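Meet my pick.
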Amino acid sequence: MKKICLMVFLSISLLFLIFSSQVKARTEIYNILAKGSKWVLNVDGEVGILELLGGRGGRTRDGGWEMAMDIRWQNNPGTLKAWADGRNIEQRVVLNVQRKNGLKVTCEGYIAQETDKFMAGITKHPARPRDIKGAWYAIKKKSLTPRVVDTESPKTSIEVEGILVFTRGDRIKIRASAEDNVKVAKINIYVDGKLVKTCKAWECWYSEKLTQVGPHKCWAVAEDTSGNKGRSKTLEFMVHPTAKPGPALTTKIQPYHPNSQDKIKFIAKASHPSGVKSITIFINNRPVKTCNQNHCEYQGGPYPAGKLVWRVSAKSRDGGVTYGYDNTLEIKPLEIGKCSISGKVYGAGADAARVFFVILYGPNDLNLHRETKHFDANGRYRFTGLPNGRYLLVVDTRADIAIGPHPSRRVIECRGGPVSNVDFELK
């Protein structure tokens, strides 16, 4: 008798769901089936609490919504899938749950038209497909806990179809996507710092015909419904003016770890079967030197502490062009302290001291160049204003002579005062 009454109740409920004539503006399905919400679920007479644990969703082609979630009922895991059409009139639900006796049940049905706190439908038993179908319904429980503030940022990713090298006139396709613990509200795609596309969904595509040659950057920023933002990694891609390959480039700087008192030498070499027409060096997006040969050097600075961006481009004689990617150089501030290191040269080759110089590395990081000084007319040198720490001193020359330093390098500990007589023999 109880089962007959349940079936009659559910039949009336289904008629109410499907044939309701007064359709009002409905709550979005992702707000009805929100993460953390609980429902009292009755499956063929077995009652338990249905917990919605979370998942993901997004807009469909017709402007509707589809979503998938993990759920728990009778302490057993399950899944939920739900769909809303483009007008948000029909809201369909499919639950895959497991009863206490282990029997798996599929519940198919709809969310009520006049309330967002009731859903119902028919049950199917995958293990016993020939059985008579049953019925289910769920009533939303009123939340007794305060709303938890969402502070988690979306996880955002970006990718470009194909390789990251193009020819002017090619079409680039960029895809951005995001995942969030609640819901992604929108994704913005940026190219070279300019906003080019906004999508109010968890996925976003952008395509354009490439006309500007040279290196470019793209990234994406996703925002969730609570205003939390997450940025993707930055992708760099190159656009060449023609399909002809440009010169092969090798670049370097001296010194390798500059500080805010160093002058920096930028060095570039290029090679190509047809010959190299020109090399251009750029610093912070400004061309600073062009050389009409296969080798180019530019000395600049000192530069203030911080980041400096430099790159090189080269043209071949047959029209090929190579645009080098941006190189970011970190220029360290020169820390001032109370230590000093001084010394002189001696020995049979002391008269040649003027063609030698002392390179100072440190403090503590013996690969970190600090400054370089030449020996004076008396064969002496002195470094001042040094912070405490260990330093490496290297004596070297650019002259092609038979005389050399002994030893050529020394490690010195500086502890707040002068360190003298750090001498080198030339012989």
Notes: The radius of gyration is 36 Å. The helical segments are 2-19, 29-32. Residues 185 and 227 are 8 Å apart (CA to CA).
